[in-house]
Write a structure and sequence with these properties.
Layout lengths: L1 E3 L20 H4 E11 L5 E11 L5 E9 L5 E7 L2 E2 L1 E6 L4 E6 L10 E10 L4 E3 L2 E6 L10 E8 L6 E4 L5 E5 L2 E7 L8 E5 L3 E12 L6 E7 L6 E9 L4 E4 L5 E7 L4 E12 L6 H6 L20 H6 L6 H11 L1 E2 L12 H7 L1 E2 L1 H14 L4 E8 L17 E8 L4 E5 L1 H6 L13 E7 L21 E5 L11 E8 L2 E8 L5 E2 L3 E5 L5 E3 L3 E2 L4 E6 L4 H5 L4 E6 L2 E6 L3 H14 L1
Parallel strand pairs: 1-4, 2-12, 23-24
Antiparallel strand pairs: 2-3, 3-9, 4-8, 5-6, 5-9, 7-8, 10-11, 11-16, 12-15, 13-16, 14-15, 17-22, 17-29, 18-21, 19-22, 20-21, 25-26, 25-28, 26-27, 30-31, 31-36, 32-35, 33-34, 33-37, 37-38
Length: 582
Amino acid sequence: MGKKLLLTVASFLLVFIISPLPAKASLEFKTKSSIIYQLGPRGNAEIEQKVSLTNNFSNIYPKEYQLKIEKEEIENIVAHDKLGNIVKKITKNSEFTEIQLSFNQEVVGKGEKLDFEIHYSLPKFAVKKGQVWEITIPGINNLEEVEELTLTVKAPPSFGKLAYSSRPIASSETEAGWQLISYHKKQINTRPLILAFGEFQIFDFDLSFFLENSKDQSEVVEIPIPPDTAYQSIVLEEITPKPETVALDSDFNWLARYRLNPEETKNIRVKGQAKIFPQPENLPFVNASKTTDFSPYLKADTYWEADNPTIRELVQKINKPKTIQDFIVSQMDYELGDVTSIKRVGAVEAYRLKKGVCTEFSDLFVTLARASGIPAREIEGFAFTENQKLVSLAVDNDVLHSWVEYWDDQKSAWIPADPTWAETTDGIDFTQGFDLGHFAFVIHGLNSDYPYPPGFYKTDQKQKNVSIEFASQLVSQPEIELVPSLVKSENIILLKIKNNSLAAAYQPKIKIKTAKADQREVAINVLPPLGEEKTEIKKPNIFQTVFTKPQLEVIINQDYFVLDYPDFKLNFLSFFANLFKK
C-alpha cells in the first residue's frame, strides 16, 4: 500500500527547519542523498538535491514528501521523478516556504528504488563583506535516518580560495577554475557549517587615546598600537602626535611611549590598515617571533589560576585543545546584557558560575590549557561577522572581543580558537580553522590584563574611541627607513638604529666597523614602526683621535652611513690632563 511520509531527506538542504520522521521511517527505507549548491558570482545559489529511497519491505512505498525551507525568497522551485513533475503545493509565509511533493511512481517491492530531484534558487545566499564571501549552512537533524549523504559546495573562481571551513573537509578539487568542496555524513552534524572564501580581509582602523598625568612629576605612559602577528599585517598611516619611541614587549605588542609633564593631557590618534590572513602567512613575523621557551605561557596568573586544585582535577580528563573547548561549550552559558558593567572574575569563578562574557570563556580556556601543559594566551581585539548567530558582543561603547591562541608543536605555530563563539553558535569548532574577522589589538601572554587594549583610554565610557571599517582597497606598505646614530650614555657610547617609517622592519642586515677594527654584525629580529634598538659601541682609544677624526661605518641592508663619534675631542683633552697630573 502507499505510505504518506514526511521525509528528513528534505532537511539536508542549506536552510531547512527539521521536521520529525515517523518512528519506523529509517527501518522502512534506505535513504541516500547528494546535495550540490552552486554559488554564482553575485552570491546567488542554485540548489540541486538528488534523493534515492530504497524499500526495505515489499508491501510499502513512498507516496508524498514535504519540504520546509527557512526562507520565503526561495525561487524557481522544480521537482521531478522519472515520470515528470512532482510539485503538489507551495506555501509561503514570513518565516519559511513549505513544498509538498507527490510522486508519480508507485515503486513497490523490497529493494526497489525511487529516485527524484529537487531544484531551486536562493538569491543573495552568500554574503560579501570587505574582501571575503561567507556562507552559512545550518546543521542537520535526524542524520541517523540517512545511510549516505554528500554535500558539495561549488564556488566560482571570483570568490578566491577557500579561507576557512568550520568542519573538516572530505575532499576538495578544482574544476575549470571552480572550487568543489565536499562533506560526507561524518563531517555533518546538528551545528552550523560556515565557509569563507578570500585571500585575505582588510580593515581600516581609527583609534583615539586620551592620556592624563595627574602627578606632580613627569612620567612615561605607553599605549598599545595594533601589532603585526602571524595572522595579520599592519600598515600605519598616522600617529599624531608621534611618540618618543615604539617598543616591543615579550609578547610582541607594539607600545608607543609618550612623556607627559605634570598635569599634562594628550589626545592621540592612530590610523592604519590591518590585513588579516586565514593561516599564519605573515612570514617575516613568523620567522622573527620563533622561540623555544614556552614556560612563561604555562604559568598561573591573576585570572588564570592554573595551579588551582579544581583546575588540576579537571585537566585529568580535559587536556587537549578540542576537548577543552568542547568542555567549555558544554559547561558555560554566554551572559547577555550590559557587558560594560560585568566585572572580570577569572577562570575558577567563571567555572563555578557556569556563565560569563568572552573574557571568562577565554580565561577558562587559557587556564585549562596551561594546567594541561599547553602554552596558551589571550587575544583582545575586534571581531566581525554578518552572521547574527556568531555575534557575542556588541561593539558599541568600544566593548571588544576576547579569544585565545595555543601553541601547536607539530605545526610550530600559535593556533587561534574562539570558545565564546563556539558556544554562541551552538558549537562551531574554531579549532579546525579560523575565520577572517578577528583583528588583534593586544596579546596577553606574560600578563593576563596588560597592556590595556584600545578603547580603554577615554574620559567618558560613552565615548566611541574605536572605529573599524572594511577597506575598499589595500594601501601600499611604506618603504622602511632605518637611520643609525651614535649617542653618549654615561660612560659608554651606543649605536642607535631608529625606524623612522610606519611599518615594522624584520631582521635587517646591519654591519658595523670602526677604523682599523674588525667588522661585526648587529642582530635585530624586529623593529616596530618608530621603534629603535641600541647596542654598545667600543670607544676609540686616544691614539685613534690624535691624527684623525674617528668614525664608525654602518651598513643597513644596502644603505651606507659614516658616523662621527661624540665627544672625541673631550677624550683627547682628558687624556693630556690626566697625563700632566701624573
